[in-house]
């Protein structure tokens, strides 16, 4: 390699080209830390109200509580027919949410903050991984910044989902494996492969969706022998590396499964219910395979990116795959991940796991620019697309969402939920049935309530969308559960004849309405005249307000009033 010398007259020092690049990378990481801090602080301005409190954040946090207390006799994932909570084997992610709930207090902001931190970590892993793939510094920084502030990725964090932690662990494994491509075999190298396997296993125990990123990790593992130039011996190297990787994964699973070992049989049985909700079990193997070739599946995936304000990165990835043919293996594993998603269920927070694939495919444009001369038009188009991607992500996530969140501070203020819960029921060891009113989850726990919400088995429409046709079933079991409730809270307008009968049979009477500043029922999702506008607004900000609720109670509650406590 020729050594180009760069002179800096004022310092009197000389730098080789490699030294200058190393200095640029150091500055890059410094700037990256500042960007992450600014992004985090801006997000905190509206994290409490945008979006409104979600079902996912309540259920995930409760899974974490159940991991610590598997014998608990209440849950917001209550299996009514069996009279027990649903236990989840992927407990590490929920445990992060539960720990952050205790750390940041009864407002319930902790799980969202923890998810934001996971997003910062995931984007940092993405930057290191892309740099390890020899992507030009400016492009690696720009793509990682766009990923950090991608509207869909950020929405999952603002809903306190644990996707960001899964992505962070999987990309960390990819970074470890790829950064070792040109190193010779040694003991430390073996340990690093084992660590990568442990991280991949941990990702699965954070959330089951880690499976969608395993093809990418597998690709990095298979490419490891390239560093040895072993020729025909590559298959032997692949086998050895695979055994080392698998050993790390098994050790990781073994260590992490120990805390829930006493509940492993119950968890295994409960996972059947979980998978049946997240996978359309009515499909045959042939139908799952053929789904990859059905244009409806691709249209649904495209719509998932469009309605969540994340359409530019997939387009950039497509052009990158065309322009840089050396990413053929990445295209294959990306299609594999898409096939897995299509064979299960296509929706926004599953499509999210394609983003790491799209990042590396998009980087192909800029690797090509660095590898060989390109036309001026190609250079300008590639760099212009990157700038557009950055401005879109920053504008949507930091500016537009902040403006919408600031405007909604009054109507979505969490303090209002606490006020009506405290005045309507108050602190005490009460059994409270939440009729899918997850907004009261964090407040209810802070007031010492035992909370119950049915775990609903979703069905599917002709397009594979989740639909919830029946909420409070089976009838006799719901009445039996309500017989043990002190209170029940339902959204205004949700009491039909059957539910009214169940409440009557259980001895629960209408007590009062709980108003959170808006006397009108909240607009239901996607049912207004302008459906497309409502879909886009929902993914951008959630419901406009909490609306009003109906409180039912029995004449003499079973529980006695207790002092204020935080479970």
How do the helices and strands line up, and which of them pair or pack?
Layout: E1 5-8, E2 13-16, H1 17-44, H2 55-68, E3 75-79, E4 84-85, H3 92-104, H4 110-132, H5 137-148, H6 151-158, H7 163-179, H8 187-206, H9 214-222, H10 234-257, H11 264-278, H12 285-290, H13 295-307, H14 312-323, H15 328-343, H16 348-351, H17 355-371, H18 376-407, H19 414-424, E5 431-434, H20 441-446, E6 450-454, E7 459-460, E8 466-467, H21 475-482, E9 487-491, H22 497-505, E10 509-515, H23 531-541, E11 548-553
Question: How would you sum up this structure, described in words?
Answer:
This is 4-amino-4-deoxy-L-arabinose transferase. Its main location: membrane. The chain crosses the membrane at residues 27-47, 113-132, 137-156, 162-181, 193-218, 238-268, 304-323, 329-347, 352-370, 385-404. Keywords: Cell membrane, Glycosyltransferase, Membrane, Transferase, Transmembrane, Transmembrane helix. The chain has 567 residues and is an alpha/beta fold. It folds into two domains: 17-46 and 87-226 and 233-408, no CATH class; 414-554, no CATH class. It is built from 23 helices and eleven strands. The chain has helices at 17-44, 55-68, 92-104, 110-132, 137-148, 151-158, 163-179, 187-206, 214-222, 234-257, 264-278, 285-290, 295-307, 312-323, 328-343, 348-351, 355-371, 376-407, 414-424, 441-446, 475-482, 497-505, 531-541; strands spanning 5-8, 13-16, 75-79, 84-85, 431-434, 450-454, 459-460, 466-467, 487-491, 509-515, 548-553. The strands form three sheets. The chain has a seven-stranded mixed beta sheet. A hairpin with a 4-residue loop joins strand 1 (5-8) and strand 2. The longest helix is centred in the last third of the chain and has 32 residues, at 376-407. The relative contact order is 0.11.
């Amino acid at each position: 390699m020729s050594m180009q010398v760069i002179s800096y007259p004022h310092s009197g020092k000389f730098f080789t080209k490699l030294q200058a690049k190393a200095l640029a990378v150091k500055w890059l990481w410094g700037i990256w830390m500042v960007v992450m801090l600014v992004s985090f602080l801006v997000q905190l301005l509206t994290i409490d109200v945008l979006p409104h409190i979600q079902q996912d954040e309540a259920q995930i946090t409760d899974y974490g509580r159940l991991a610590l207390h598997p014998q608990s006799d209440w849950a917001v994932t209550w299996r009514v027919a069996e009279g027990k909570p649903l236990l989840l084997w992927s407990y590490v992610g929920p445990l992060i949410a539960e720990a952050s709930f205790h750390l940041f207090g009864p407002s319930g902001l902790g799980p969202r903050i923890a998810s934001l931190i996971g997003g910062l970590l995931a984007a940092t892993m993405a930057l290191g991984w892309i740099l390890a793939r020899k992507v030009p510094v400016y492009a690696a920084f720009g793509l990682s910044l766009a990923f950090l502030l991608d509207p869909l990725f950020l929405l999952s964090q603002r809903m306190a989902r644990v996707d960001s932690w899964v992505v962070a662990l999987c990309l960390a494994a990819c970074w470890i494996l790829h950064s070792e491509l040109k190193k010779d075999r040694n003991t430390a190298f073996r340990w690093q492969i084992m660590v990568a396997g442990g991280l991949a296993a941990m990702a699965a125990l954070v959330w089951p969706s880690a499976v969608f990123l395993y093809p990418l990790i597998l690709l990095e593992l298979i490419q490891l022998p390239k560093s040895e130039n072993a020729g025909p011996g590559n298959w032997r190297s692949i086998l050895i590396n695979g055994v080392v990787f698998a050993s790390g994964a098994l050790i990781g699973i073994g260590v992490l499964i120990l805390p829930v070992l006493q509940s492993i049989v119950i968890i295994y049985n409960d996972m059947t219910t979980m998978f049946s909700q997240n996978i359309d079990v009515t499909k045959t193997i042939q139908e799952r395979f053929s789904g990859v070739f059905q244009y409806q599946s691709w249209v649904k995936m495209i719509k998932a990116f469009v309605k969540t304000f994340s359409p530019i990165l997939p387009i950039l990835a497509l052009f990158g795959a065309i322009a840089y043919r050396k990413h053929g293996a990445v295209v294959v594993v990306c299609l594999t991940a898409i096939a897995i998603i299509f064979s299960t269920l296509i929706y926004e927070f599953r499509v999210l796991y394609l983003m790491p694939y799209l990042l590396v495919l998009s980087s192909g444009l800029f690797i090509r620019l660095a590898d060989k001369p390109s036309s001026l038009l190609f250079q300008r188009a590639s760099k212009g697309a990157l700038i557009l991607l950055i401005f879109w992500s920053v504008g949507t996530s930091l500016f537009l969402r902040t403006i919408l969140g600031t405007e909604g501070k009054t109507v979505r203020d969490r303090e209002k939920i606490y006020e009506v819960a405290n005045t309507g029921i108050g602190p005490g060891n009460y059994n409270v049935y939440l009729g899918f009113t997850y907004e009261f989850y964090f407040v209810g726990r802070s007031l010492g309530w035992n909370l119950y919400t049915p775990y609903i088995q979703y069905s599917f429409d002709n397009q594979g969308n989740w639909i919830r046709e029946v909420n409070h079933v089976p009838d006799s079991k719901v009445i039996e559960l309500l017989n043990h409730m002190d209170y029940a809270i339902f959204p205004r307008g949700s009491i039909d004849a059957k539910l009214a009968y169940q409440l009557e049979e259980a001895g629960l009477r209408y007590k009062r309405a709980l108003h959170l500043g808006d006397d009108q029922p909240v607009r239901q999702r996607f049912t207004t005249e302008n459906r497309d506008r409502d879909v886009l607004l929902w993914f951008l900000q959630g419901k406009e307000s909490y609306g009003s609720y109906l409180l039912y109670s029995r004449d003499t509650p079973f529980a006695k009033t207790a002092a204020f406590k935080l479970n």
